[in-house]
Fold:
Amino acid sequence: ATQWAEANGYTIKELYDSGRSAFTGDNLIHGQLGRFVDGLKNGEMGPTPVLLIEAFDRFSRLDVAKALGLFSDLIERGATVVVLGTAGNVMTYKAPLSMQDMVIALVAMDGANLYSRNLSKNVKHSVET
Structure:
C-alpha cells in the first residue's frame, strides 16, 4: 500500500475496521469504511479520493447486489477504488467503468460473499455438534 501511494502521489490515511463485519455490513454502518463513504458523500475527501484496499473481501462481503451498489456509488461520486490483490496484481476502478472491470469486480464480490456464507455455515455447524 505504501509503495502504491508513494508511486502515485498519495498520502495514506489508514482505515481499520477491526472486529467490524464486512459480511453483515457492520464495517459500513459503524466502521471507518462508513465514515469514508459519508465523507465522500459530503465532499470532504478532496478532489481525487482513493479507497485503497488489499482485496475486495476487505471492502465488502455483503451479497453481490448490495456490494455492487456500494461500489458503484463510490465510483459515481468520483472515488477511485484500488485493489492491491496478490502477487502485485493491482486493479484500479474509476469512472467510466468498462464491462470487463465490472465483471472482474462482480466475480470478486461474489467470491467474498460466498466465502463468508460458507464460513458462517461451518461455524454454525461446529457449534451445533
Summary: The two ends are 42 Å apart (CA to CA). Residues 99-128 form the longest helix (30 residues). The beta strands are 50-53, 80-83, 91-93. The CA atoms of residues 22 and 59 lie 7 Å apart.
